[in-house]
Amino acid sequence: MRLGATVNGRVETSSGPVIDIPATALTRINQQPAVWIVDPSAKTVSARNVDILRFDQAQVIVSQGLDAGEIIVTAGVQALHPGQKVRVLGSES
Predict the structure, then answer these.
(1) Distances (CA, A) of 53 to 25, 34, 46, 87
(2) Cβ atoms within 10 A of the Cβ of 88, count?
(3) What is the pTM of this model?
(4) Which residue in 46, 18, 49 sits closest to 32, CA to CA?
(5) Could you tell me if 47 and 34 are in contact, meaning their C-beta atoms sit under 8 angstroms apart?
(6) The CATH number of the domain covering residues in 19-79
(7) Alpha-carbon distance 80 to 93, whole Å?
(8) How far is 19 from 70, CA to CA, in rounded Å?
(9) Percentage of the chain surpassing pLDDT 70?
(10) d(Cα 48, Cα 59) in Å, to the nearest integer?
(11) For residue 49, what pLDDT band results from cuts at 50, 70 and 90?
């Protein structure tokens, strides 16, 4: 093959399921990216580390650490502590 020759190629990648969250939900626990998960029955929060695939100013793509349907905190994450009671917006109480 000569320098400057045209090459046709194909790249195949596999991407597992990902979850898109607002960038405001991301925090750092033990020097690792994390989010606060809401327990809807107890109305308390717990921190969970997540793996980030990519991010920008508005959104974060999480590749591991979250399951579909989980409730995460998207505002005020810097003021939370484990077990803290929270109120979910739009809930009855």
Answers:
(1) 15, 13, 22, 29
(2) 12
(3) 0.79
(4) 49
(5) yes
(6) 2.40.420.20
(7) 19
(8) 11
(9) 92
(10) 18
(11) very high
